[in-house]
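Lab notebook, bench 4. The sequencing result for the construct came back, and we need a structural model before the next group meeting so we can plan mutations. Quick request posted to the team channel:

Model the 3D structure of this chain.
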Amino acid sequence: MEQAERDEEARKERAITEARRDDQPDPVWHDGVGYCAECEAENTARARVGRGRCIDCQQRYERDRKRGLA
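Done. Here's the predicted structure in C-alpha cell form:
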C-alpha cells in the first residue's frame, strides 16, 4: 500500500472512531462496576471499552436515530 493510501485509511478509521465516541454517553461507574448511562443496568463489560449504553439501550437509540427521533 502506498503512503497516501495508508494515510487515507488511518484518517477514515479516526473519523469512524470519533463518530462512534460522539454517539456514546460516558459510562457510569460506581465501586468499580459499570452501569448503562440510560437505564442504569449493570454494563461493566461494555463500559470497560467506553460504551456508555447497554445493548438494549444502544439498539433503541440507533432505531430512534434512524427515525429521526434522537
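The chain has one domain: 3-66.
Will bring this to the meeting.
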